[in-house]
Write a structure and sequence with these properties.
The chain is built from three helices and three strands, in the order αββαβα. By secondary structure, it is α+β, with helices and mostly antiparallel strands. A hairpin with a 2-residue loop joins strand 1 and strand 2. Helix 1 packs across helix 2. The longest helix has 22 residues. It holds the Pfam family NifU.
Length: 103
């Protein structure tokens, strides 16, 4: 098992035990996207996804919990807020159809 796999497992444990319950209390959730070196990339889901407090949730709940449990084992905690490929494809198709209808 590599160091990254070990760190990934520890991050997943903290998310499952500390972070996810706090987010679910407010109708949200979290997904671990990847661990690269010491950097942790996560995506907020559910009600947390578009919440105006998402950045403070990241700092207080996610980063705070990970730092409290893992300390210097982790580097940056990055909020991944990219739009899914499926949603982009849907939007492209939708606008192509709309454009074709208006011509």
């Amino acid at each position: 098992m590599s160091d990254v796999d070990t760190l990934k497992e520890r991050v997943e444990r903290v998310i499952e035990e500390k972070v996810r319950p706090a987010l679910r209390f407010h109708g949200g959730d979290i997904r671990l996207v990847e661990v690269t070196g010491k950097d942790v990339k996560v995506r907020l889901l559910g009600a947390c996804c578009f919440c105006p407090s998402a950045q403070s949730t990241m700092e207080d709940v996610v980063t705070g919990s990970l730092r409290e449990e893992l300390g210097d084992e982790i580097g940056r905690v990055i909020l991944w807020d990219a739009i899914s490929d499926e949603l982009l494809d849907f939007a492209r198709d939708f606008f192509k159809r709309k454009q074709a209808q208006s011509q």
